C-alpha cells in the first residue's frame, strides 16, 4: 500500500527506494532549514500570544502571574456584557463600520467606472496619481490635516464658510458632526486607492463585447450597466465579504487620530475600549475577553458572508 | 499597470460630448479634493503668523517665511524621532523581506513535503490573532517593552505578503530552470541566491515598499509599547502627541518668541512628516498598483 502510493508520486526509480519524512528531510533539508526561521518567528509572535487568550477565562492578577491566576469560566464575559460601555462600544463599532462600508465601499466602484469611461489616457493617469495620494499618508497625518482643515477656530473650511457669510461649524467638536467628518475623511483616504482592483478587473473585459453592444445600438450607460458592472461583480462580492468580516473591528489608528474629548459619543468602539480597559487601566482579563469576543464575531461574519455568497452563485473567498 | 493603459470601454477617438465633460468634471473635483488639503497645509506652514491668525491663508502662502521649519530643524526631539523612524523602517523592511523569502521559497516548491500544513500555519494568522492585550503581554514577557525591537519584530511577518511572494515564485520561476540547476549540482540555497532572487527583483521591490510604507505610517504599536522612553518615539507617534493630542510642547517654544502661533508650527510639522512619503510617492506608486493587483490574484 505504502510502497505503491510512494512509487506513484515519485516516478524515478531512485526516489522510490526510500520514503517517509526522514527521506524528505534529508533530501530537502535546505528547504526545511529555510522555513524554520519564519516558522519559529510566527510561533513566537503570533501563536504564543494566542495562549494569552486563556486569561479571558481567568481572573488575571499580575502578582499571581499567568499560571497562578484563578479560573473563572465565563464570568469575565458576563461581567463585560453587563457594562454600559460594552453596549455602546458594540453599537458604535457596528454603526461606524456599516456606515463606512456604505460610503467607502461604494465610492471606489463609482470612481473606477468613471475612470474607465474617460477616453484620454493622460487625463486618467494624472487623476489616478492624485486620487491615490491620501492612501500613502498615515492616520496621524490625516488626523492632523483634518484638524488644520476642519477645526472650528482656525480651520480653512470654516474660514471659507465665514467669508461667504455662513456660521462656523464645529466639524470635529460635536458628536453628529464628528461622525459625518469621520466618514468623509474615510472616503477621502480610500476612494482612489480602492479603484485599482476594479480597474484591473475592467481591463480584463473583452473589447469585442463593447463593440458588439455598440453595433446593437447600446448607449454609453447601457454598456456600463450591462457589461462593465456585471464584469466586476465577482470582485465586488469578494471585497464585500472581506469587508463584512471587519465590521466588528475597525481601525484603531483612524479613530484614535480623529477622536477628541468633546466627542465621546461615537468614539468608544471595541478596539478603543480594549485599549482603555487593558493598556490604560490594566484590566487584562476584561480587555482580552472583549478582544476575543470581537475576533469570534468577526470570524463568524466572514464565514456567514462567504456561505451566503456561495449560495448566490459567487466564488467566495474561503 | 494595464489598468491605466487598457481602456476598452471607450471608443477609440471621439468628440467631447456632454457625458464625457461631466465625467471629467466629477473626476477633477475628486482629484482636487485629494490635492488641495495638502496645498493648504503647505501654504500655512510657509506663511507668517499674522496672516494665519487673520485667517487669510488659503492655497497660497502669505508673508512667506521659513521660520517654522527652522524651528523644527532646531528641535532635537523631532529630528531624533525622524532618526528612529528611519532606523525602525530599515530594520523592519529587511527582516520582513528575509522572513517572506525564507517562507515563500520552500512553500513554492512542489517537492517540499508538508507544505500544505506549513502554509496553513502561516495563513491562519491572517484570520485569527490573539488581539491587542495578548500581544501586549507577549511583548512585555519577552522584555521588549520600550525597546526599538518592539516596533521591528512583532509585525514583521505578513501572511498577505507571503501569499503574494509565493504566488509570484510559483508562476514566474520555470521548473525547467531549477531542474537544470539541480543537475549541475546546485543546492536549494544556491538556486535561491543565484537564480530565484535575481529573477524576482520586481516583486521583491514591491513587497519591500509594502513593508516600508506600512511601517513608516503605523503608530499604534509604538503607542502601546513605547511608554516611557520618549527618545524612542518614531515620527508618527511624536506627531500624534505634538499635533493631535497637543500634550507636548516644542522644545524651543520659550526661546523663540517670534513664532507665537502654534498653527503654523503644527502645519510645518505635518509637512515635515509627510515629505518623505511625498518624495518617494511618484516613484513607488507604480509598484504599489502592481502589488495590489498581484494580491488580488486568487490561489
TrEMBL record, chain A:
Pfam families linked: BPD_transp_1
Domain ABC transmembrane type-1: 90-305
Localisation: Cell membrane
Membrane association type: Multi-pass membrane protein
Keyword Transport: yes
CDD domains the UniProt entry points to: TM_PBP2 (cd06261)
Swiss-Prot/TrEMBL keywords: Cell membrane, Membrane, Transmembrane, Transmembrane helix, Transport
InterPro entries (UniProt xref): MetI-like, MetI-like_sf, UgpAE/MalFG_permease
Protein name per UniProt: Sugar ABC transporter permease
Lineage: Bacteria, Bacillati, Bacillota, Bacilli, Bacillales
From TrEMBL, chain B:
Organism superkingdom: Bacteria
Residue ranges crossing the lipid bilayer per the database entry: 21-42, 82-105, 117-136, 148-169, 189-213, 264-284
Tagged with keyword Hydrolase: no
Membrane topology term: Multi-pass membrane protein
Record bears the keyword Cell membrane: yes
Primary location class: membrane
Keywords: Cell membrane, Membrane, Transmembrane, Transmembrane helix, Transport
InterPro entries, alphabetized: MetI-like, MetI-like_sf
Pfam family, one: BPD_transp_1
Places the protein is found: Cell membrane
CDD domains per UniProt: TM_PBP2 (cd06261)
Residues covered by the ABC transmembrane type-1 domain: 78-282
Family recorded in the similarity comment: Belongs to the binding-protein-dependent transport system permease family.
Protein name: Carbohydrate ABC transporter permease
Organism encoding this protein: Paenibacillus tianjinensis
